From TrEMBL:
It comes from Alexandrium andersonii. Residues 347-371 are annotated as: Disordered. This is Serine aminopeptidase S33 domain-containing protein. The lineage of its organism: Eukaryota, Sar, Alveolata, Dinophyceae, Gonyaulacales. It comes from the Eukaryota. InterPro entries: AB_hydrolase_fold, Hydrolase_4. Pfam families: Hydrolase_4.
C-alpha cells in the first residue's frame, strides 16, 4: 500500500472512531491546548461605556501561573504594559485579548487609547500548542522592535477562555478581536493580521472577509487536510480522498485577499512541510505577493531564534511598506527593490537572543500521519495510535 493510500485509510479509521463526525475529526488532531499559563486579575466588570464596551465582558491585567514566566523580565514587562479585555464571541464564548501598546521614542508605553485612528495594530493569532500567556515575551519583543501595537487573541478553550477548541470557534475568535479593534477606533485598513502555524487559518479567513492593512503568515499550511499528504503530487492523496473534511483552506482564501501578504517558512520544517509556505506564496495574486522569507536551516519553531536580526529586518521592511502604501493610498505593493525605505531617526533597539515557544504539537501527530499512522487525541488528551495495515 502506498503512503498516500495508507494515510487516507488511517483517516477513515479515525473518522469512524470519532462517530463519523467530520468536525470532531478536524478538531481531534488540530488543537492541543496546554495547561493555562496565566490568569486574569479582573479590574472592571463589566464596562459600561467607552469604545467597544458592548463587546466586552470585563477588563483587567494578565498574571502568570508559571513561575518561569513570572521571573522573566520580558514577560513581566509585557504583563505590566498590557491591557486585557474579555470579549464575548458570536457563539457566546468568552475569550481574552491582550493589547500591548507600542513604545514611544523614549521607550515608554504609548497609551492604547491615544491616536488609534492613526496607528497600526498587529493582530496576532498564535499556534495550537501555546496560549497568549506563553506568547507575552514574543509580543513584547514585537512591540519593542517594530514600534507597533500588538494585540494577541486567545482561542476558545485555551487559557482562561470558556468553551471547547474548534475550527469554527477559532474563526469567530479572530472575528471578535477584529470587531473590538474597529469599535475601539482602529480602522480595519490599519490592522495587520499575523497568523502563526494553525493561527494562519483564522488570519487568512479574517483577511478574506475584511479589508485589512496586511497579512503575515508564519509557518502556514495550505489547508488543514493538506498537512498530512505524504506525497502531495501523487494520486490517492488524503486531501483529494477526504476533500469534504478539509478546513482552513488558506490556498483558496489567498485569491480573495486585497492586501499585501508576507509568508515566512523554515525549509527544515517537519510539522508543516516547507512546500506549504512556498506554494501559498505563489497562490497570492502577484501584485499583493511580498517576497517570502524562507531560511534554509529553520524548522517550525525556530525561525526567529536562528536569526533574530534577519527576522526583524524582514518584518520592519514589510511593515514600513504597508505604512507607506496606506499613507499614499497606493494601489499596488511597492517591492523592496522599488521603494526607498525610510531611515529610522532613532537607533534601532539592540536585538536580544530569544527562544521561541513551541507553537506546534510535540507529539509528532502530523509526522505519524504522513507515515501511514494516526495519533488521535481522545478522552481529554489521552492518545492512541491507529495504523493502517
Amino acid at each position: 500500500m502506498g503512503s498516500n493510500c495508507a494515510v487516507s485509510t488511517s483517516i477513515g479509521c479515525i473518522f469512524c472512531c470519532q462517530g463519523c463526525n467530520a468536525e470532531k475529526l478536524q478538531n481531534a488532531f488540530t488543537f492541543v491546548p496546554p495547561e493555562k499559563s496565566y490568569d486574569i486579575k479582573v479590574e472592571k466588570l463589566p464596562l459600561q461605556s467607552g469604545p467597544g464596551h458592548e463587546l466586552v465582558v470585563s477588563s483587567g491585567k494578565l498574571v502568570y501561573c508559571i513561575p518561569g514566566l513570572r521571573g522573566d523580565s520580558s514577560y513581566q514587562q509585557a504583563a505590566e504594559r498590557s491591557e486585557v479585555r474579555l470579549l464575548k464571541t458570536s457563539f457566546g464564548e468568552h475569550i481574552p485579548i491582550v493589547w500591548l501598546p507600542r513604545m514611544d521614542d523614549k521607550g515608554q508605553n504609548s497609551s492604547a487609547s491615544s491616536g488609534r485612528k492613526s496607528r497600526f495594530v498587529l493582530l496576532h493569532c498564535h499556534g495550537n500548542a501555546t496560549d497568549i500567556g506563553m506568547m507575552m515575551g514574543p509580543f513584547h519583543r514585537l512591540s519593542k522592535h517594530l514600534g507597533i501595537d500588538i494585540v494577541g487573541v486567545e482561542y476558545t478553550g485555551y487559557g482562561v477562555s470558556s468553551g471547547t477548541p474548534s475550527v469554527r470557534n477559532s474563526l469567530q475568535d479572530a472575528e471578535a478581536a477584529h470587531a473590538y479593534l474597529v469599535a475601539a477606533g482602529v480602522p480595519s485598513e490599519r490592522i495587520i493580521v499575523y497568523g502563526q502555524s494553525v493561527g494562519c487559518g483564522p488570519a487568512m479567513r479574517l483577511a478574506s472577509q475584511h479589508q485589512l492593512g496586511g497579512v503575515i503568515l508564519h509557518s502556514p499550511m495550505l489547508s488543514g487536510i493538506k498537512v498530512i499528504d505524504p506525497q502531495p503530487d501523487a494520486s490517492c492523496k488524503p486531501s483529494c480522498v477526504w476533500h469534504c473534511f478539509d478546513f482552513y483552506p488558506n490556498y483558496r482564501h489567498a485569491k480573495d485577499i486585497n492586501c499585501p501578504v508576507f509568508v515566512m517558512h523554515g525549509q527544515k520544517d517537519t510539522i508543516i512541510p516547507f512546500y506549504h509556505g512556498y506554494r501559498l506564496t505563489e497562490a497570492v495574486p502577484e501584485p499583493l505577493r511580498w517576497p517570502g522569507y524562507f531560511p534554509p536551516a529553520a524548522g517550525h519553531n525556530d525561525i526567529i531564534e536562528l536569526d533574530t536580526g534577519a527576522y526583524f529586518e524582514k518584518m520592519r521592511e514589510f511593515i514600513r511598506c504597508i505604512k507607506q502604501r496606506s499613507d499614499h493610498n497606493a494601489g499596488l505593493v511597492a517591492r523592496p527593490s522599488q521603494v526607498s525605505m525610510a531611515i529610522p531617526t532613532n537607533e534601532e533597539p539592540e536585538l536580544e537572543a530569544a527562544s521561541e515557544p513551541n507553537v506546534g504539537p510535540k507529539d509528532g501527530r502530523y509526522q505519524k500521519l504522513r507515515q501511514g499512522g494516526l495519533m488521535t487525541v481522545v478522552n481529554g488528551g489521552a492518545a492512541r495510535e491507529i495504523r493502517a495495515s
